Protein: Nucleoside-diphosphate-sugar epimerase
Amino acid sequence: MDISSSTVSQTLPLLKGKHILITGTTGFVGKVMLEKIMRTVPDIGGVYLVIRGNKKHANAGSRFANEIATSSVFEHLKLNSPDYFNDFCDNRVHCISGEISEPQFGLSRSEFRALGGKIDAIVNCAASVNFREELDRALAINTHSLRNIVELSDIAGNIPVIQVSTCYVNGFNKGPIHETVVKPTRGELTQHKSGYFEVCSLIQELELKIADVHSQYQGKELKSQLIDLGIREANALGWNDTYTFTKWLGEQILLKSLRGYSLTLLRPSIVESTLNEPSPGWIEGVKVADAILLAYAKEKVSFFPGKRSGVIDVIPADLVANSILLSLAEQFKAPGNHHVYQCCSGGANPLTLGTFIDHLMAEAKENHGAYDKLFSRRPRKPFIAVNKRLFNAITLCMSFVLLMASQTLGKLGWKRSLKARRNLDAAISLSTIFSFYTEPEYIFRNDKLINLAKRMGPADQALFPVDARAINWEHYLRKVHMPGLNCYALKGKSQTATNRKIVATSQKQAA
Ligand SMILES: NC(=O)c1ccc[n+]([C@@H]2O[C@H](COP(=O)([O-])OP(=O)(O)OC[C@H]3O[C@@H](n4cnc5c(N)ncnc54)[C@H](OP(=O)(O)O)[C@@H]3O)[C@@H](O)[C@H]2O)c1
Structure:
């Protein structure tokens, strides 16, 4: 059969009756993926959700009921198919209380084995996405936990593993970045002939350094030293931060341990609000670009290090969920292979930082009143991207001037810190975390992902779109993302009417 001319979905029958273990469903990407499965793959066998207890909800079932099932991501499904939604939750959602960074997820040997006997594939979405996480914590969740995933896949009979990674495992590599195993730009790690890098002794060295820090410091100082250690080690080997470094290490563990078995490394770029599904603009949490936008909207930051001509790679979360499901279906179709896919926009539909800023600024100027959680008034200053050297020079001068001012005011009895000082600190702190991402010197390519979508055929391209060329950036940023950020992530005033308008516009655009 000529697959590319297939007019029926290949993905749906491949996922039919399958039981998928998913981690990270209390998070942003995990929720969007779970909703898509529930809504679009009605014949799925079931989902096993590994969730750890937290302060409010001690076990996975309680967290599912209170943090996942109640999420606005399911509004559409609950509205249109309330019985189906409840039935799915009751009969096909299986909650497992587990901490995936602990051996066997913290389950007993028999529980872990029993879990392995029930599942057909693993989608690992859990991670610490804190760029400046303490090194030991980041290693535990982003690297060591992959050994537990491998063990479970082994018990289950070498079932497919889809690892949700990140395009930024590419570290300091520059230029066009393809969907392959990433070679570090620094250090001298040995590459095995089958592609992965040997990282065991590097991880042992990191553990020794961590133990050394633990032996010397306590409390806040310990935390700060572990953060610094992570950044130092990441930089020394070619990554900007601890998050991306430990995610890369995790990829190597999987590539090595799952040689000859089914593994897909699925790397999204910066995941932002959904383009269309389940509703345009759905988003949870404030990360990367949105943290800077929020600081600007709150008049804390009006200039930032950035390269206006650089391609800032943003990808809507529904396209990420679709990529995960397509690559999962592919693994059921032809098991035993390794694939690397980048779910990104830079290569196919580049959005420069300059254009990104201009669209957001235009929306802020024209419609600031619609964003109660973002803007309290029309922005008075433009947002300016300057190069890092200039940013550092300006902040240094401003720091000096503000120090003088606060000393003088201190002598006059003024005790509070100056607002300008607080704003400057906010800008410096955001720049320390995010400036690597706003001065991009790389362009992520997704040719393999697009070919996968082509191979799956037109029906799957319509059901599970992954192609960023469908995005009209002006419309997306101004009429989808900003309203979504205000309404869903920041829980702003109900934008039901606005959302209805958005849906209508998006549908018109799609047609
Ligand atoms: N968001 C992005 O822009 C982006 C970009 C590229 C790649 N990614 C990748 O996409 C995936 C999901 O990211 P996200 O944005 O959805 O992150 P998120 O909202 O922070 O969610 C992270 C998820 O991981 C879970 N988790 C963390 N540590 C855990 C542990 N020790 N045991 C069990 N679960 C744990 C969290 O559970 P708790 O609720 O218990 O903390 C949460 O469900 C990650 O693998 C990330 O690397 C994200």
Notes: Confidence is low (pLDDT under 50) at residues 1-5, 500-511. Residues 23-24, 26-30, 52, 54, 99-101, 125-129, 141, 164, 166, 247, 268, 270-271, 285, 287 surround NAP (CB under 6 Å). The longest strand covers residues 46-51.
